[in-house]
Amino acid sequence: MNRSIKKLTDGWRISVFAIAMLVMVPIAVVLLSFFSPSQEVWDHLIKHVLSELLINTFWLVTGVGAVTAVLGVSLAWLTAVYDYPGRKMFSWALLLPLAMPTYVLAFVSIGLLDFSGPVQTMLRDWFGTGNYWFPDIRSTGGVVAVMSLALYPYVYLIARNAFATQGIRTIEVAQSLGHGRVSGFFKIALPMARPWIAGGLMLVLMETLADFGAVSIFNFDTFTTAIYKAWFGFFSLSAAAQLSSILVVFVFVIILIEQRMRLRMRYYQPGRHSTEMKRYRLKGPAKWLAFTASLLVLSIAFIIPVVQLLFWSVEVVTDELNNRYFGFLIRSLLLGVLAAIITCFFALILSYAKRHYPDRLTNFLVRTSTLGYALPGTILAVGIFIPNAFVDNVIITVSRNVFGIETGPVLQGTVAVMIMAYVVRFMAAGFNSIDNAMQRVTRSIDEAATLMGLRGLNMLRKIHIPILRGGVLTALTLVFVDVMKEMPITLMTRPFGWDTLAVKIYELTSEGEWERAALPAATLILAGLLPIILLTKHTEK
Amino acid sequence: MTKILELKNVFHAYDEHLVVKDISFKLQKGSIGCLLGQSGCGKTTVLRTIAGFEDIVDGNILIKGNVVSKKKWSLPPEKRNVGMVFQDYALFPHLTVSENISLGLRKVDRSERVKRVTKLLETVRLNDVKKNYPHELSGGQQQRVALARALAPKPELLLMDEPFSNLDINLREKLSMEVREILKKHGITGLLVTHNQHEAFAMADEIGVMKEGVMQQWDTAYNIYHKPVNTFVADFIGEGVLLHGIVENERQVRTGLGILEGEITHKYSLGSPIHILIRPEDVVHYDDSGKQAKVIHKAFRGESILYTLILENGDKVLSLAPSHHEHPIGSKVGIKLEVDDIILFKRSEKLEHQKTRE
């Protein structure tokens, strides 16, 4: 009895529990508002808002899901199983769109393809006004296309890993059973990779549901933009919370599917191959078709937008590269660094706690602590603001009634709240890379070190830190870049004057100032390249 | 008897680098062949060219008399009617045992398909787990699913790539006997690849020993062991030493253990200095023998003891004695040679492990 209490009150456990609370409280707050609806707010939402939001969200999710699945899977199959000109380069270059925040691709696409953009202007010069057909970029199709191009790498990356380890072997087995290559792909390789494809797809859908920047540039109302408008447009926090509670249910469904797929992947361990399988060499027109297809996707999703951004940046650089820009940059960097350090510190605690107590409670708490990656920033902003406001109110009341002192809000509108939201949102990115490294610090490594007389801090310094260093650096980079690109949390919880690059992009693009948004956008892409470099380095090993 | 498989002077290269050189052999219907060799000797590549996964640079591969591979042309694997058991089994994790097995039966109509799967499940004794998924099975069961799946489309030829290497030793022996029985009972022609000679002996009617892409000897297991054509085969298969000797006449060779008489397989001129292959079981303990040898090393093997003996002229021999013939190291024992076939090699050739020991 005594012992079990001691075990539960151990420092590790308390820390893990506290970190898990950071995630659970916002979710609970948002969910509670679902169960305590205010009739008035509901009536308004159902009458004016909900049906449009649901329809838009439905088209967005199905559209982006379908397009990213087709793009991601076909490109993954192509680069994993076939050999064609440029295959090696494409196999990592096709990840590059990950470096581009969706909202950047969104405004560049609109700037390029809108009526006044260079493409349509050129068409008008050739054919004359009204003599050509051009799809409207500001449409459901346009949002779906843009988001798919930005998000397909999630499916591509995971599916390619699956195909690279089992693709060629699967086709060989299929052939030995009398299937051709095409039937082998559709009947066997594709169903077999289903957990991976579905897992990647769920990540895409999480990002789609969470997206705020791109849809607001397109004026395409979804739950995230509605939450923002409810709060900052109509100053109705309860409507924002109500909308969040609906969105969070969708998110949970997706989390459940994703976790199930992950469980299945464990059973689907691909066989061990002593030799690397030889890719099928494409010949004649087929190899140029593969080359063209890869280049086309890469160009539309990355090369052309980046070139356009660079042109715009050069146009405005003399006006825009001023102290204001450096202010945005420094605040972005500062927030990124701060959030990265705190997140990684917490992630280390989680990882060590899991190592010390590999029991179900700890595992559950750790899993909960890393759920934030699925939660849209808008929900987190609402879910973190409400409890903080509550605490502030308590402090204000207590100090007034007990001490007779008038205080303002202590937590609201501080960087601390913002950082708290970042930590919750990006804990998974930090934890996964740190925990991967932690797997290599096995129990027997500790035991071997002890036998050699290394204990306590010495062991930490000589054994643990060197082994963990790589993982921690990766974690810091990932969180840092994610925070820099983050838009809704920053927008909704920033203290006065804390405008960052992402906030600036939001403000400029909402006024259609594409050119002026180019410089901050280019800066963010540059930062976004860091994790991709890490990723390709890692997969090459 | 019909020839199911024939390889004629097959060459294969990875990027200009020849890994299979001039391989030829045949398999008759119902017989089981084996390619035996160390890893990297090209045996798996030969198997993959037969399956159609690799193209050949020169030569011909014929299945049932039809050319399936030749220079610059090869029939797609799915049209060869060849089954394959992969080293890692490559079972499909998303399909049950039954579904895995019926995957190759898509051209067979439904009732026939069900019948055949049921029959195969019985053959490999997996009826109880037919609805399970591969990850729920033991290694041996997975292996049998792989076999049943490969047999389902009734292939002309069954290829097996190191089929037992992922199993532990006890299971390996049991399963290899079981598989041989199944193949024999159904008259299936098989070709397996392994680096393990015991597996080869247990499974195969004919064995081909390969080294660096070249076929050293294609022969029965008995001949591979007792009549190796060169020192590589002699060394790779079983144990033994080469003794110095001199050819006395057509049936006799003089050695440090006296005159040996028997069938001399390779002809050498009289009086020429040669090496003679002596297997451990050729050296028999015989207390009344005039020839004495000193024990310098012994290895207890349970049912027998392998002695390393040194002769008076300094030659070493291995001797396999029943387990209760205990002799301490350093003691002298009487021995005599019991050899049926006298295998001679030129003096310049040595056994690999003898070289390292000297």
Fold topology:
The complex is a heterodimer of chains A (541) and B (358).
Chain A: H1 2-8, H2 11-35, H3 39-81, E1 82-83, H4 87-93, H5 102-113, H6 118-127, H7 140-176, H8 181-192, H9 194-210, H10 213-217, H11 223-232, H12 237-267, E2 280-281, H13 284-320, H14 323-356, H15 360-369, H16 377-403, H17 415-438, H18 443-451, H19 456-485, H20 488-493, H21 501-510, H22 514-540
Parallel strand pairs in A: 1-2
Helix pairs in contact in A: 2-12, 2-14, 2-15, 2-16, 3-4, 3-7, 3-9, 5-7, 5-13, 5-22, 7-8, 7-9, 9-12, 11-12, 12-16, 13-22, 14-15, 14-17, 14-19, 16-17, 17-19, 19-22, 21-22
Chain B: E1 3-14, E2 17-28, E3 32-36, H1 43-51, E4 58-63, E5 66-70, E6 73-74, E7 82-85, H2 97-102, H3 110-123, H4 139-151, E8 157-161, H5 169-185, E9 189-194, H6 197-203, E10 206-211, E11 214-220, H7 221-226, H8 231-236, E12 241-249, E13 252-255, E14 258-261, E15 263-264, E16 273-278, E17 283-285, E18 292-300, E19 304-310, E20 316-322, E21 332-337, E22 341-342, E23 344-346, H9 352-357
Helix pairs in contact in B: 3-4, 5-6
Portion of residues in helices of chain A? over 70%
Taken from the alpha-carbon principal axes, the silhouette of chain A is globular
- One letter per element, helices H and strands E, the order of chain A comes to HHHEHHHHHHHHHEHHHHHHHHHH
Number of strands of chain A: 2
Description:
The complex is a heterodimer of chains A (541) and B (358). The longest helix of chain A is centred in the first third of the chain and has 43 residues. In chain A, strands 1-2 form a two-stranded parallel ribbon. Chain A has a single domain, classed as MetI-like (MetI-like fold, Orthogonal Bundle). Chain A has 541 residues and is mainly α. Chain A contains 22 helices and two strands. In chain A, helix 17 packs across helix 19. Chain B has 358 residues and is of the alpha+beta class. Chain B has two domains: 230 residues, Rossmann fold; 119 residues, Nucleic acid-binding proteins (OB fold (Dihydrolipoamide Acetyltransferase, E2P), Beta Barrel). Chain B contains nine helices and 23 strands. In chain B, strands 7-8-9-3-10-11 form a six-stranded mixed β-sheet, with helices on both faces. In chain B, a hairpin with a 2-residue loop joins strand 13 and strand 14. The termini of chain B are far apart. Chains A and B meet through helix 7 and helix 8 of A and strand 7 of B.
